Amino acid sequence: MKNILIVEDDKALAEGIVLVLRQDGFSFQCCHNVKDAKKVLEKNIFDLILLDINLPDGSGLDICRELRKEERLDPVIFLTALDTEIHEVTGFQAGADDYITKPFSLAVLRERVMAALRRGERRSSSGKASPVLREGPFTIDSENQSFFMGDREILLSRTEQKLLMVLIKNKNRILERDTLIEKVWGNDGEFVDENALSVTIKRLRDKLEKDPRKPEYIQTVYGIGYRFQINEGESE
């Protein structure tokens, strides 16, 4: 199930968007200001973000810029009344994937959303990004399905690899349990026993941590989920 974040201070418009797109089986989170949006984005990754620019406590442009600075690839579509060419150019320069000016047709919005999701899927599977991911002492070679901690190769199951990849790509960010289950088990997530995530986390800790009872990397955030902690010195 695709997960969409809507950041829009016009609550009636946000409800209308949800009403139209829910028919396609998407799930939604809605925020009405920058502060709440940042809190949600700290704990979740999304398949698409619909983002207003003029928000009561700041600008959606800053949210988008921060996402791109963190090298997050969540597709962003701006929904805004700012309709001049310079505004549109600024939106794309901030990292937007699309820019839609108000007022707009909800039917047209749906088609633009579907197109952005298709592009996001192609971008994820295109292989343009390097198959080798390095963070701190860890190296994941997704092409050869190999994982190293320093010079030592560590054997991981397919599920352990997928979970570790999600955690490392979102280093130092809190990820909710439901988000991790959906990203690792996909459409089967609703049928997965929640204990499966705890078991997989334990197996990873047993393989990666010096003391699994006092994890340095895979940290529990009680009542929320997990965070993969990499200190700045280790990231260099």
TrEMBL record:
Residues 130-230 form the OmpR/PhoB-type domain. Pfam families: Response_reg, Trans_reg_C. GO terms for molecular function: phosphorelay response regulator activity; transcription cis-regulatory region binding. This is Stage 0 sporulation protein A homolog. One of its GO terms (biological process) is regulation of DNA-templated transcription. Residues 130-230 bind DNA. May play the central regulatory role in sporulation. It may be an element of the effector pathway responsible for the activation of sporulation genes in response to nutritional stress. Spo0A may act in concert with spo0H (a sigma factor) to control the expression of some genes that are critical to the sporulation process. One of its GO terms (cellular component) is protein-DNA complex. InterPro entries: CheY-like_superfamily, OmpR/PhoB-type_DNA-bd, Sig_transdc_resp-reg_receiver, WalR-like, WH-like_DNA-bd_sf. Residues 3-117 form the Response regulatory domain. The modification 4-aspartylphosphate is found at D52.
